[in-house]
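Can you give me the bound-state structure? Components:
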Amino acid sequence: MENKFLPYGAPDHPSVKPVDLKNLRPYGDAMNDGRAQVSFTLPVNPSPEAEEAARELMRKMGFHDIKVVAMEKPSEGFSFYVCYGAMDHAVDYTKIHVLKVEAQFKSFYEINDIIKKEVGRKIIIVGATTGFDAHTVGIDAIFNMKGYKGDYGLERYSGYDARNLGAQVLNEELLDYAIKEKADAILVSQIVDEKDCHIDNLKELMRLAEQKGLRDHFIFVCGGPRLNHPIAVECGLDAGFGPGTLPSHVASYVLDEFLRRKAAKKEKK
Amino acid sequence: MENKFLPYGAPDHPSVKPVDLKNLRPYGDAMNDGRAQVSFTLPVNPSPEAEEAARELMRKMGFHDIKVVAMEKPSEGFSFYVCYGAMDHAVDYTKIHVLKVEAQFKSFYEINDIIKKEVGRKIIIVGATTGFDAHTVGIDAIFNMKGYKGDYGLERYSGYDARNLGAQVLNEELLDYAIKEKADAILVSQIVDEKDCHIDNLKELMRLAEQKGLRDHFIFVCGGPRLNHPIAVECGLDAGFGPGTLPSHVASYVLDEFLRRKAAKKEKK
Amino acid sequence: MKLALDRKKIAACRKIAVKVSRDVRKMIDAHSTVAQERSCVRLMGIDGAYLNPKIKQYYPLANVIVDQLQEDDALSRGVSYWMANACLEKNMTPTQVAEELVNSNGTFRLAKLPQHKSADVEKKAKALAKEGLARLVARRKERNKLIKGLHDPQDRSFKKPPVKYVIVASGNIFEDVVQARSAAQAGADVIAVIRSTAQSLLDYMPHGATTEGFGGTYATQENFRIMRKALDEESTKLGRYIRLTNYSSGLCMPEIATVAAQERLDFLLCDSLYGILFRDINMMRTLIDQHFSRLVCALSEIYINTGEDNYLTTADAVENGHQVLSSQFINERFALDANMKEEFMGLGHAMEMNPFHPDVILLEIARAQMTRDIFPKAPLKYMPPTRHMEGDIFFSHVYDAIFNLVSVLTNQGIHLLGMPTEAIHTPLLGDRFMALKSTNYIFGGAEHLGEELIYKKNGKIEKWAQKVLDDSLKLLKYIDKVGLFAAIERKCFAEVSRKIDGGKGYKGVFKRSDGYLNPFLDQLERKDYGK
Amino acid sequence: MKLALDRKKIAACRKIAVKVSRDVRKMIDAHSTVAQERSCVRLMGIDGAYLNPKIKQYYPLANVIVDQLQEDDALSRGVSYWMANACLEKNMTPTQVAEELVNSNGTFRLAKLPQHKSADVEKKAKALAKEGLARLVARRKERNKLIKGLHDPQDRSFKKPPVKYVIVASGNIFEDVVQARSAAQAGADVIAVIRSTAQSLLDYMPHGATTEGFGGTYATQENFRIMRKALDEESTKLGRYIRLTNYSSGLCMPEIATVAAQERLDFLLCDSLYGILFRDINMMRTLIDQHFSRLVCALSEIYINTGEDNYLTTADAVENGHQVLSSQFINERFALDANMKEEFMGLGHAMEMNPFHPDVILLEIARAQMTRDIFPKAPLKYMPPTRHMEGDIFFSHVYDAIFNLVSVLTNQGIHLLGMPTEAIHTPLLGDRFMALKSTNYIFGGAEHLGEELIYKKNGKIEKWAQKVLDDSLKLLKYIDKVGLFAAIERKCFAEVSRKIDGGKGYKGVFKRSDGYLNPFLDQLERKDYGK
Ligand code: B12
Ligand code: B12
Ligand SMILES: Cc1ncc(COP(=O)(O)O)c(C=O)c1O
Ligand SMILES: Cc1ncc(COP(=O)(O)O)c(C=O)c1O
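Here's the bound-state model for the whole set.
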């Protein structure tokens, strides 16, 4: 993607400013006008001084052309603000590199075929929502027969032996089960992110795996609304999936990773 | 108002952090947590890189604990974001001084009484929406008999001879009319703020008044949704009123200013 | 009809509207205006302009021609006579005549040319008119062919939800194209490019593509062409016909209508009452102009939109629903008199009552359903709340959501999307996205709600609708008594008073002389013309 | 009834519910649980706790007493027997007995004390029960007196809009007070302090004021007292009675109900089916606990709220409305069997269908109206959308606005406000303000909409409601055939399967021995008790 190009559908005319990926700024109603909307509450009653405080905060955020368009009183001692402004900040989009799950998307049928041909047995996947977290809809969306938004769940893949242990499963229990069942991959769901408990939980799982010398024994995957691949890697896992993930994304990744490790092992021999 | 106090209704308990006016920060769901909501559009399609760009902009705005909670595709080549974060910025509320209209609020009846006793004639006020601006609801709210939200308009005050010239009145026309009718105060409404045309318009009016040596001849007042007293003073007027203004606010100010000038003139003699 | 409204009273309202329009029509048939004559020049294919050094703007040839005739006191015979005569005399096409005239710096005077036999001049003028109007019919057919190949979101039976209409107003037509295509992808069916402020007071049409505007983008022929072309591309991509709207009310109403027809626009704000009340345009001028404009729209199957919604921004919206209804009856009759079918009348109304008025949602439903029942075939342009919208965009967005629900519940035809930032600025691209997503959800979720719900006999809703109809009949009777012009002077509409000889553009009105010739008007008036 | 629902089918559903509850009642009357017994201890006025070094937490005296009896294999006679006997033996009050026991580090064993004549023990136990329950009646009367002096937003005829219920969940009870008073000023009528995560799995009630919580604030007696006192102050200031809610479902259900009654709470989430399905609590344990809890609520005129809304977060909300209705019939019968009047049954349902399902708003209206028609006297707890809420708070806020409209249109009794940030975090103070402002607007604007609109005979809405009723009758017949326990195991509710001997808390269930004594239960069971 070169750095400057006309926005979609724009007639080629000098007055139409191109998208500048090196200085990417919000688009309000014109290219690079930097306009954004902000809302917050202050613990003081509405007043001209309080409005000025809101404007001052907007300045500190790097806005100019600031409009405090609403100052309301939710209750005694509080004031609610809606503001608009144009931000000076810009981002060099060309320099942004985001760690991405390395996986070649394959369909339900391709995956089952490849496993049959190149693996010769079912790949065993165990999953659970760990710690205190009782949310199961996320992990079920990945595991259950019905899957998610018409995309079949792992239980439906003939190439996979997928076991969903449900919610509030302790890290130790999940690891012990994986060892006992000689699983190939461990899938963890974390939904509640209160005081970063989801991060602590994942890091604790990996610490346990290290202690038991099992780090490379399993493919460690996590997912949840507040998770993504960079965060997962930071916590020491192999891959991470965020909101909107489809089971086939996970099925493709686990297969690719399994085959990578298989090939790597063969080379070492 | 001392600088530290418990929020309204808070039980006196060490765990309840007081409001700290010297370091005033937004209140999300706890004192000083600095949490705010932001939304903007970027001229690139949604992608992990685009999400990281949004997060980067939030960092540049001075946020931490950043959550990009929505990344949607309004149309080809654009992505819409809703983000939350905790801002580091704080404001010393005790240092904020805002220029305020100096006026003692008086009721409809008090004003008419004082004018009868201390002025002995009707104070003449002329008003209009000036320049290209065709919005009359604002100026009518201040002038018309019915007034605004049950607060009588200037035309209803026996102490005032209020003349509403309507909209799209050029600055020259308004000034000439004020001179011809020996008005005491000139009230200007500006609603459209496109490319700061409202500021240019007000400054142009005051330039004309200066040229004609009329600066101190009239009490110059302006009002509109994007105006307030500090902006009016910056443009060279005597007073400015923003959204939610009631006619009685204006009536009280014009009377106070009229009496101030009358007393000042007497002293000079 | 879903509400038990007295059909006799509705008929009575329509009868009065016929009488009111007949008086006005007498005035229209006795006069013409500079704008109407300029429209005929444009229909002759003269769409050029020259850089006038005085105003440092492009000044249309149509204006040069009509100004000259006015200077030579010859305009009362109609521009068609002088142009046809000049074509015969110089054996030139109208465009060649115009070019020679503009380059003659004032020496080549149409009214000074030798005059051919009036029969020949009339024959020539008729030919020019036939050719000019035929081009409009061709564009109409072109549109209908394009629509046939695509999904047409406009449902004549109003069983489907209304078409979604959004505005763009960046000031730069090329930027407007980017935002218009974005809005179409997010679900908009109709794009309106808001005119730059105060263009309605210009007595000439700005020329060429414009990149600087004020609170909107200039309405020019080139801008129409650029946007219509871009929307044709997007329509084909989306498989859904996207309509284009612009604003004709003001001093150039018939010209903007003509140019819109030539450039195949689909909707046109075209309401002289709006011009009179909100732009202080002279009554006679804009009522004469409106007749010609609506004839052009009828021929070109352009939907007109009228501006009654604005009455409720200056007058109290709870008390004054009847002003809107009375004005709609009059506007309906004016349009019928211009050969326009009800299916093309986007009569304006709005949801503008104070949101915290008790049971306000019942009253808004009552008025919206009443309007649908009284004008069953008209698409009706239902406008979002503006006056009580707040800087609190979260509240405003909910207020618009209720507007969306009332609109689909009462089977409106054209739905102008409310923007959460109505009280703040002309819409950002993100604002439109939010509004379209909300409307898509509510229209999809309540598509058949109208068929499912019946109003309680003599309930609050039915009684409120009956009250508004009664008040309208009373107001129409008053207008019938005093005449439309006096009624406007006495603040019958929008708490605004205007005088018959006041306002802008009065100078552009003239009485038709006996030999007045206007074959464009004559052919447009023929009911069967261009069918 | 606004919808033409088959009254015979509704009666058939209720008949099955009676049979289902009769089977379960047999089990209930043959057993008790550690939680039920601890509740009796608390009713004896023993509400203290001691700092247990092992768990570094305050451990309630009620637990110490019941644990000891369980260790001494004596609990099956009921704690009332042993405590009454101890009071006689030591000539002490229950609190003194408890203090001595806890300070005896295990040496003072209730079951080892000499046993008085059973008649005397029974008489003493009855006196303790009478006194304990009288305190609850006193608090009930205190509440009714306070409400009489204020405006009560709860309208028993449901003509007025439902009461507005919001949640606070800062984790710090003192911070919750600030936010609760703020919400009340912005229009909230009911404040719910969300419990800290996983408290439902604790087999003891945390003690004292708590400032650290996880996704909520611990439910403790001191926290109840602090919040109720603060809301009393705010109620007097606002002239409007603000109600307080907490959550009892889980291992301590009857204790939380008892403490809530003692601290004069107003609403209580109290549903064993929720505990079974979503917290994996043992079926027998929580069904036994529920009976005692609802008897206490009935006596104290505490509204119960049930959790059927949660079924639609795991099962598809379009297809599974009947699971909710069937569960409501069963919950209604359980509550009636606990002397609870319908006016106090906040039966749970929700608007959870996919917002982009065609005509989804018609289907949601159908189900909400059906529920109102079938349970005309029950306030009904209508829950906002959660599952399909998005990070796009502008869409979510509109989605909640439609929920507000459906709620007031169908005359619900308790309306839990949806937060625009439902998919993101526990609500900020500003989120609540937005939600309350939207609800105040829609409830005020559509207050009488329900009276004004009638549903088309055999329309989509009516047919959908009839379908849900039919499906419910079918499901209830199946449950009647296999029994409630097996039905739960076969995923009849919320696509979740549980076994009768599975789940937490099974160990706390015991069969009543022949000499089992529980005068609290006996007096609560008497229909006329404490009237
Ligand atoms: C349903 C629900 C519940 C149900 C759970 C039922 C169940 N069996 O799951 C019930 C009612 C029991 C519940 C309880 C609570 N909940 Co809850 N709940 C929700 C709700 C409404 C929907 C979550 C959901 O189902 N999303 C739909 C699924 C499909 O999306 P998803 O989880 O993101 O999963 C997708 C991706 O993330 C990914 N993914 C997820 N997991 C995994 C795993 C792997 C391996 C992979 C590859 C991918 C992957 O793939 C999925 C499909 O794309 C959310 C609000 C919301 N609308 O999101 C609140 C929410 C998550 N809950 C919340 C809270 C606070 C709670 C409680 C603590 C409330 C309380 N105090 O009692 C309790 C906690 C109980 C506990 N011990 O955890 C908060 C969390 C706030 C925070 N800061 O994290 C939320 C956000 C609501 C709120 N706004 O307060 N909850
Ligand atoms: C009604 C209205 C119209 C009507 C005006 C009818 C009339 N006779 O006034 C019509 C339809 C004609 C109209 C036209 C246009 N409008 Co307009 N209009 C509005 C609307 C909906 C309401 C404004 C209003 O009446 N507010 C109510 C009054 C009571 O509030 P107020 O004006 O703030 O006045 C109060 C205070 O400000 C103060 N005050 C005001 N004036 C004065 C003066 C004095 C001396 C004092 C002491 C106090 C004072 O006291 C008043 C009472 O408290 C606003 C949107 C909105 N909801 O605000 C758009 C709005 C102002 N319009 C707008 C635009 C762009 C236009 C047009 C340019 C559209 C176009 N391209 O054609 C044209 C401009 C015409 C022109 N030449 O100016 C924009 C302005 C955007 C901007 N960046 O400034 C707005 C914000 C809509 C939008 N979101 O795009 N408009
Ligand atoms: C009928 C009609 N014409 C024209 C306009 C806009 O014209 P102007 O460009 O004068 O604001 C409006 C209102 O927006 C209208 O309702
Ligand atoms: C009936 C019922 N009880 C309790 C709860 C909450 O309990 P917990 O603290 O276990 O999340 C809910 C849901 O929020 C519920 O619906």
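A couple of observations. The mean pLDDT of chain D is 96. Chain D touches chain A through 25 residues (CB under 8 Å).
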